[in-house]
Predict the structure of NitT/TauT family transport system substrate-binding protein.
Amino acid sequence: MRIARVARLAPLPAAAALALLISGCNGTSSTPSSSMSMNIGYTAIGAAYSDLYVCQDRGVFKKNGLHVKLTLLNSSSQLAAALVSNSVQVGAGAARTTAQGIMKGLDLKYVALPISHYYLEMWGKPSISSVDDLKGQKIGLSSPGSLGDASLDALLEQKGWSGSDVKKTFLKSTPAEVTALENGAVSAIVTQPPTGTQTRSKGFKKIMDFTKFPAAANAYTVKGDYLAKNKKAVAAFVKSEAECLSILHRDKSAAIASIIKHSGNSDRSLAEYSYDFFEPLWAKTPSVAPQLIDDAFTQAVATSGGKKPADPAKYVDNSFVDSLVKSGYIAGLYK
């Protein structure tokens, strides 16, 4: 197993993360001066972030004047704290989690959305023949508030089940989920390809995927004060994002090479499986749908309490994507 070298933030205890949120709300955290350098945080190893991988590998960030370091967070539950502490300046993760931060007083903006559905799979024991067989079973997830946790909640709601109908087992990371499934500690796991997909070689089976559930699953998020001081950098990031999405759609070989390099698994067949899974999900125009952000706030209130903002759409800034559409830049990428 080979993983491309990226920075990784150590997991933060819940109390430390809360302290960061509180300090951010009180305005005590510093915001970097205008800069074309940025750390971009993403929240799991896998092919979902192939847009970032390709941007880095193909020099697209550099071409657009950015100096980027990719930073692997432990899960979406760390994202708000990482943004508040300025460990990352742009973060990708489940909007349900960052919506919780906004309800605590954080000023965050959603500036791009490359995938508008949950993009995870559930792999499990061969004895599980349908979703209904999951009742009473242990399901491995990375952490509370993670994308897997949100995806499973969507399934429970759709089935009309309560949280007690399955046994959520939090294992801190997606590689730990794979280990837990293989050693029998859990009956199923929720991960993105190719992390859980690799267990098929050991006899485990795909139970379902979550792509039918709309969600702002990996919304690119920035702090409001960072955006105000660094509009040129954010514009360059969104422009890079649009170009790299076009590379994913138009150049399968480049996408697969980046998936192999960064996803933690060198099996080409798994990379091809992952590409085929994600290609229909990747947007061409990465606008943030306000309704999905509204839904994220609704979900955040349901899971963690708090008061939903009167106008969730005010946390969406599609101006950078809109400018690329109006200029014909995005359309030109596909000619």
In short: The CA atoms of residues 32 and 226 lie 7 Å apart. The first helix runs from residue 14 to 25.
